[in-house]
Amino acid sequence: MGFWIFMLIMDLLIPITMIGFGRQFMKNAPSKINPVFGYRTSMSMKNKDTWEFAHKFCGKIWYACGLVMLPITVIPMFFVIGKSEDYIGVIGGIICGVQLVPLIGSFFPTEMALRKNFDKNGEKR
């Protein structure tokens, strides 16, 4: 049972992180444009407007995806209670792999929205 709890906690890290950062980014982007923390692409770092827009947009995606992923994470884990550690680990790994799709995939709609709302120099259209 101990390994199952450990794996559940590990699998919950991605959706909880997405909810937390998504919520924070929807309210406000990191105060300074920086190459270390936040949604960092060449387009999002053009100026303060693109920086804030990208964080707000990506924050909404992360928040919504995190909320959807919570039950998608927890429900399958209930089906592996009492199974071997190997089986629990495989299922947990699959869940993490599935969670990476919206985590990384949020890049595409955010970049498309940036390009739709700003020109290549970061000026609002």
| Percent of residues in β-strands | under 5%
pLDDT average, as an integer? 93
DSSP helical segment count: 4
How do the helices and strands follow one another from N- to C-terminus? HHHH
The main sheet comes to: none
Number of domains: 1
Structural commentary:
This protein has 125 residues and is mainly α. The protein has helices at residues 2-27, 48-78, 85-105, 107-117. The protein has one domain (2-31, 39-117). Helix content is 71%, strand content 0%. The longest helix has 31 residues, at 48-78. The relative contact order is 0.19.
In brief:
With 125 residues, the protein is an all-alpha fold. The protein has helices at 2-27, 48-78, 85-105, 107-117. It has one domain (2-31, 39-117).
Explain the layout of strands and helices.
Layout: H1 2-27, H2 48-78, H3 85-105, H4 107-117
Helix pairs in contact: 1-2, 1-3, 2-3, 2-4
Keywords, please?
single chain; about 120 residues; mainly alpha; 4 helices; about 70% helix; elongated
